[in-house]
Design goal:
Length: 500
């Protein structure tokens, strides 16, 4: 048997520890963990997984809030040659049951708060279950395991996505794809001086997972402070207490932070934010950079691309752009017939490179429709400028066709967010007998502000083409979000009387 492959993620973790040595690297709820402790515990947990029957290629579910055990579990699973199968903790029992049965998972590591849900969803399935704070300790009680050899194309992670638009589908990501994407993101991060970062993202999401892998490529000792889940007040307190310099966020998190009393906290240590997971409205970017005194660096990607396709770098920050494609990724913009379009012209963003998924688990037909001739058809609309910077306009499936005219929801949302009273906005199409689809929106107001839906309609009408502005705006207590902070358009459509 040959040795571990060059892109084996367990090898990456091993070399990271050898390169950077032992230091206090992770803070969580009052406790520091050293890199040596994380390394040793993951090696023991790998041995524990093997002792409990986990074999190379087996899927191991990790369903927890953000805790240090996530860092340890990912390394341990890869070391054992198994497949990390992260599951967002905000699942219904039927959704979780589907993931468990579809993946054929043989083991699971879960938070104690989720034990009841997991037990109900896993009823009748043969899954070795380890509860953090309980029998999980058995995994770390064994002898450290050596690294199981894996090839570049071996499955490293199986991530389920699409739960807000239909039954979740498993996305197969390879060791090399995640390795290359992590390296590309780390190289972009090296253009900032920040080494002390706050992690509020769910580590069970593709964005959170790739941030962890990027850290394994780092040539500097990076300190991470982990939030169990995102809480704006807690986020601000941790930045002030630990003099943190950066944080990876999704736009909705930024919008919620801007509604806090920022002057009550010392945030002078902040240098930069990374923004991904959804398009960032220009008004929010400008407001965040002014309020926090940072540079907001955007990125773009999707689960099917191993999370990252492009990212901004500090020296070539360009307003409105999500940066240039990372070194491992090739991007082309194509029309609906699949033909390349000129620079500056919108079309579907297509991606090629090692980060493209191996395919959808148990769904070769959907795989063939999504990856054609090696190109991942993302379903996102955007363009490249003449210098190769990528701009994302919207999701193709979210496009509203009103009276024959194309309306991108993001254009409407960006205008509504220019109103000082609006904190979050979501725009969708609603069936209409005359226009085919009518443009409607829901908003969440910033604390202490009041404005009516009718006033917001007039605000948008004064700033947009006649066919674009929303005919209805509904003020909600909270705009529906997914578990990772994206706008939940399916829920919004339900609210306005449409489900598609």
């Amino acid at each position: 048997m040959s040795g571990p492959g060059e892109h084996n993620l367990a090898v990456l973790a091993e070399r990271s520890f050898e390169r950077l040595g032992d230091y206090e690297s992770l803070f969580f709820e009052g406790t520091w963990l050293t890199s040596a402790e994380i390394h040793e515990r993951s090696a023991r947990a790998a041995g524990g997984l093997r002792a409990h029957g986990v074999r190379p290629g087996d899927r191991v579910v990790v369903m927890t809030m953000n805790t240090p055990e996530v860092f340890i579990a990912y390394r341990a699973i890869w070391r054992a040659g198994a497949v990390v199968t992260p599951v967002i903790f905000l699942q219904s029992e039927p959704e979780l049951r589907h993931i468990l049965t579809d993946s054929g998972a043989t083991a699971a590591i879960i938070s104690p708060e989720l034990a009841g849900l997991f037990e109900a969803a896993a009823d009748g399935l043969r899954i070795a279950t380890f509860v953090i704070g309980g029998n999980y300790a058995e995994l770390e009680a064994g002898r450290p395991a050596e690294i199981e050899p894996r090839t570049d194309d071996d499955l490293a992670a199986l991530l389920y996505t699409g739960g807000t638009t239909g039954r979740a589908k498993g996305v197969m990501l390879s060791h090399r794809g995640l390795w290359e994407n992590g390296r590309g993101l780390d190289l972009a991060a090296r253009t900032t001086p920040a080494t002390r970062t706050l992690l509020p993202l769910p580590l069970s999401h593709a964005y959170g997972l790739i941030v962890v892998i990027a850290g394994l490529h780092s040539d500097r000792r990076r300190v991470s402070v982990l939030q169990r889940w995102f809480d704006p007040t807690g986020w601000l307190e941790l930045v002030a207490e630990h003099r943190l310099e950066s944080s990876s966020l999704v736009p909705a998190m930024l919008q919620l932070l801007l509604g806090q009393p920022l002057g009550d906290y010392d945030l002078s240590s902040l240098v930069s934010f990374g923004s991904g997971g959804a398009t960032l409205p220009p008004a929010i970017r400008v407001a965040a950079e002014k309020a926090f005194g940072v540079t907001v660096l955007q990125g773009y990607g999707l689960t099917e691309s191993s999370a990252v396709v492009s990212a901004e770098r500090m020296p070539d920050h360009r307003a409105g752009s999500v940066g240039k494609p990372l070194a491992h990724a090739e991007v082309a913009i194509r029309d609906l017939e699949g033909n390349p379009v000129p620079a500056g012209e919108d079309g579907e963003i297509c991606v090629r490179g090692p980060g493209v998924m191996l395919g959808y688990w148990n769904d070769p037909e959907l795989t063939a429709r999504t990856v054609r001739d090696g190109w991942l058809h993302t379903g996102d609309i955007g363009h490249l400028d003449e210098d190769g910077y990528l701009y994302v306009v919207d999701r193709l499936k979210d496009l509203i066709i009103r009276g024959g005219f194309n309306v991108f929801p993001r254009d409407v949302e960006d205008v509504l967010l220019e109103h000082p009273a609006v904190q979050l906005a979501a725009c969708v199409g609603k069936p209409d007998a005359e226009s085919g689809e009518e443009v409607v929106a829901v908003v969440q107001l910033a604390p202490g502000h009041r404005v009516s839906g009718a006033e917001l309609v007039e605000f948008a009408r004064a700033r947009m083409a006649r066919y674009k502005y929303p005919r209805e705006v509904t003020v909600l207590d909270a705009v529906p979000l997914t578990s990772v902070g994206k706008i939940n358009r399916r829920a919004v459509r339900d609210l306005v009387g449409r489900d598609r």
